[in-house]
C-alpha cells in the first residue's frame, strides 16, 4: 500500500511536470470599445503566456482600406498583460472597421480583434487656453528635449508635412493641434521607426480650420507626456501661410517700387544729345 502511494505521487508529479514543460504559449488581444467616434481614443489590452517577458508585443493596426497606420511595440507586465492607448490618426479616424493584430517573437500564432468607427463628430473645444504644466513632473523644452520637429509647408497648400526625430523609439508619439484660440481641433498618433524618425501629414481646411492665425502642433511622448515639443504654422482661409511669407511679399513689393523710382530718376537726369 505504501509503495502504491509513492507510485501514485510520482505519477502525479510527472504529469504536472509534463504539462508545464509542453504548455503552448498563448496570446489574446481586445479593445475597450467595439464602436467609437472619429475623434475617440481606444484602449488595446491583451495577455500572453509562456513567453520571454522582455520581448515586447507588436501591435499592427490597419485602417478600413487595409493600410497600416500604427505598429507600436508594447511592453509586457509581470503578469503577462499588456496595454496601449491608441489615439486617432490625424486629423481623425476614417469611418469603417480597423483591424488590430497582436504578435510576439516567441509565439508562432497571432491574435486579432477589430473596432468600428461609426460616426464623425466636431472636435472637442474643451479648453480656451493650454493648461499650465506641473512644476515638478514635466521637463521644460530645453536643449535636452528628446523630440525635434520640422514643418514643410507650401504657400496656399492645405497639407502640412511634419517630420522629426526622437530618442525614445519604443513609444508612440501623440500629436495635438491647437487653434489660435487654444481649442483642440485634432488629435493623432504616430510610431517612430527603428532609427527614431517619424513623419505625418496634416490636412487643413473645413470648418475646424476657420480661424486665421498661428496654429500650434504639439508632439507628446511618454506615459505622462514627459517629452514634448511644439511647432507653429500660420493658417489663413484654411490654407498654409509660410513663415515670413507676408514679410517676403512686402520686401518684394518695396524692391520693385524702388527699382521703378530709380529708373525714372535716371531717365529724367539723362542729358539730351542735341
Please give a structural write-up.
This protein is of the alpha+beta class. The protein has 2 helices and 17 strands. Strands 2, 4, 5, 6, 8 and 9 form a 6-stranded mixed sheet that branches. A 5-stranded antiparallel sheet has the order 13-12-15-16-17, with no helix packed on it. The chain has a 3-stranded antiparallel sheet with strand order 1-3-7, with no helix packed on it. β15 and β16 form a beta hairpin.
Which features does this protein show?
alpha+beta, 5-stranded antiparallel sheet, 274 residues, 6-stranded mixed sheet
Number of discrete helical segments: 2
User: SSE string, helix = H, strand = E?
Assistant: HEEEEEEEEEEEEEEEEEH
Shape assignment? elongated
Low-confidence stretches: 124-144, 244-248
Share in helix: 10-25%
Number of strands: 17
Largest beta sheet, briefly? 6 strands, mixed
Quaternary structure classification: single chain
Secondary-structure-based class equals alpha+beta
The radius of gyration is: 29 Å
What's the rounded overall pLDDT mean?
77
Give the termini distance in whole angstroms: 143 Å
Tell me the fraction of residues in β-strands, as a range: 35-45%
Amino acid at each position: 500500500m505504501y509503495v502504491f502511494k509513492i507510485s501514485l505521487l510520482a505519477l502525479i508529479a510527472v504529469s504536472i511536470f509534463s504539462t508545464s514543460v509542453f504548455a503552448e504559449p498563448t496570446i489574446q488581444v481586445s479593445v475597450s470599445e467595439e464602436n467609437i467616434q472619429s475623434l475617440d481614443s481606444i484602449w488595446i489590452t491583451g495577455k500572453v503566456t509562456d513567453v520571454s517577458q522582455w520581448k515586447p508585443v507588436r501591435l499592427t493596426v490597419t485602417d478600413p482600406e487595409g493600410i497600416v497606420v500604427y505598429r507600436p511595440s508594447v511592453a509586457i507586465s509581470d503578469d503577462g498583460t499588456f496595454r496601449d492607448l491608441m489615439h486617432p490618426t490625424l486629423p481623425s479616424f476614417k469611418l469603417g472597421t480597423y483591424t488590430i493584430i497582436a504578435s510576439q517573437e516567441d509565439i508562432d500564432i497571432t491574435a486579432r480583434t477589430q473596432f468600428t468607427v461609426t460616426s464623425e463628430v466636431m472636435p472637442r473645444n474643451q479648453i480656451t487656453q493650454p493648461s499650465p504644466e506641473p512644476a515638478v513632473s514635466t521637463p521644460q523644452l530645453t536643449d535636452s528635449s528628446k523630440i525635434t520637429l520640422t514643418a514643410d509647408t507650401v504657400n496656399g497648400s492645405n497639407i502640412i508635412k511634419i517630420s522629426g526625430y526622437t530618442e525614445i523609439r519604443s513609444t508612440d508619439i501623440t500629436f495635438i493641434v491647437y487653434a489660435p484660440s487654444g481649442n483642440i481641433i485634432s488629435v493623432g498618433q504616430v510610431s517612430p521607426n527603428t532609427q527614431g524618425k517619424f513623419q505625418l501629414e496634416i490636412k487643413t481646411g473645413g470648418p475646424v480650420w476657420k480661424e486665421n492665425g498661428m496654429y500650434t502642433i504639439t508632439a507628446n511622448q511618454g506615459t505622462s507626456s514627459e517629452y514634448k515639443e511644439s511647432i507653429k504654422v500660420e493658417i489663413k482661409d484654411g490654407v498654409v501661410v509660410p513663415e515670413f511669407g507676408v514679410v517676403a511679399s512686402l520686401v518684394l513689393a518695396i524692391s520693385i517700387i524702388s527699382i521703378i523710382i530709380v529708373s525714372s530718376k535716371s531717365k529724367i537726369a539723362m542729358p539730351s544729345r542735341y
